[in-house]
Amino acid sequence: MNEVYNFSAGPSCLPKAVLEKAQKDLLDYNASGMSVMEMSHRSSIYDEIHNQAAQDLKDLLGVSEDFDLLFLQGGGSSQFSMVPLNLLNPGEKAAYVVTGSWAKKAFKEAARFNPVELLASSEDTGFDHIPEINPSSCPDAKFTYVCTNNTIYGSRIVPQKLDPIETPLVADMSSNILSEVYDMTKFDLVYAGAQKNLGPAGVTLVLIKKGLKLAQREDLPTMLNYQTHLEKNSLYNTPPCFNIYICGLVAQWLKDQGGVPAMEERNKEKAKLLYEAIDNSQVFKNKIRPQDRSLMNVTFVTGDKDLDAKFIAGAKKKGLENLKGHRSTGGIRASIYNAMPLEGVKALVDYMKEFELENR
Ligand SMILES: *Cc1c(COP(=O)(O)O)cnc(C)c1O
To answer: Is 253 an active-site residue?
Structure first.
């Protein structure tokens, strides 16, 4: 088999141990004679997979008592509309912090349904930092919306930065959930598409604080109503069973690794190694303000498009895959989610040094 390190932003690499377990179970899950792909979602054997995955994820996040967890479909992008439609009655206002492309999309989508205020934005400087958030500037907002990690630009909102926010807090954590310790009780609603740091594409995690007041929109489609899924434990209709099963394996793997605090330590070590290599280089540059840098998506450029392309092509030859930056920004992006081992980052740094010697 061709061994590579996969730096894709999403769908992204999964822990090898998870893939091996899935392979072992593929034709015959737990002596059932069936694959999880073939099972009824109403069977007791699937029920156990479903509930265990949800419980393990809640345990890892430390929210077993306070939050309900949903497995939904439609990707992170469906939450851009589900959030305002479920949290705002017609005419009610929300405040958005726009720190990258995904937050901007969420802001625009919410504006289709309700009045929305731009609480803070870093768009005028190309999303190169996290702006100051002054929550008192929008006192009538029903919630404040943030995206904790900007997958495309490579910045993140560090946990302390959320402290002053007192209105109900909604977060898109698609690309950094379970990567470092956030005080989850700070949030009222959190969602994350699985394909960055949780599992395969096709399932989205939604965490809703118990007792959170949901809006009452008469015309809300049944499938877009959180209440529908809350009442049925995410089994109102057929859930993406196999994807949920893989997320459950990832959760188990995370527990075996020591949970979120252990992942945070490893992720900080990986990110430090890579940012130091960039900062000490004559060829590569990272444009994000240092204190706002992402631990998950590390972006850099040479300043020359052709040289970027040469770097990416050379990396591929060494088994360092998917380093191309997002199509909207260009450049180079190394996504180093939980499943990326330290060895992968070391291999990338070695190649960067080699490339620098040859292209200075
Ligand atoms: C990838 C991503 C999304 C969009 O997810 P889809 O599942 O493709 O809809 C939204 N927000 C963030 C932060 C992302 O990284």
So the answer is: no
* pLDDT tens column, 240-274: 999 999 999 999 999 999 999 999 999 999 999 99
Question: If you count them, how many residues does the chain have?
Answer: 360
- pTM of the complete model: 0.98
The three-state secondary structure class of 168 is coil
SS (H, E, C) 197-259: HCCCCCCEEEEEECCCCCCCCCCCCHHHCHHHHHHCCCCCCCCCHHHHHHHHHHHHHHHHHCH
The alpha carbon of residue 77 and the mean position of all alpha carbons in its chain are separated, in whole angstroms, by 12
Residue among 331, 311, 299 at smallest CA distance from 175 = 299
Distance (Å, whole) CA 302 – CA 196: 26
pLDDT of residue 158: 97
Between CA 284 and CA 249 the distance in angstroms is 37
Mutate to test the pocket of ligand 1, among 97, 175, 337 (most ligand atoms within 8 A of CB): 175
Distance 45 CA to ligand 1 centre (A): 31
Place of tokens 């118990």: 210
Q: Tell me the pairing of strands 155-156 and 169-172.
A: unpaired
Centre of ligand 1 from the C-alpha of residue 175, in Å: 8
What tokens were used for 182? 């956030």
Whether 102 is catalytic is yes
CA neighbor of 11 nearest in space, from 203, 269, 206: 203
- Which pLDDT score is estimated for 26? 97
Q: Which residue from 12, 77, 333 has its CB within 8 A of the most atoms of ligand 1, so it is best to mutate?
A: 77
**Spacing, Cα 100 to ligand 1 middle (Å):** 11
Instruction: For residue 168, give the nearest of 70, 63, 224, 86 by alpha carbon.
Output: 86
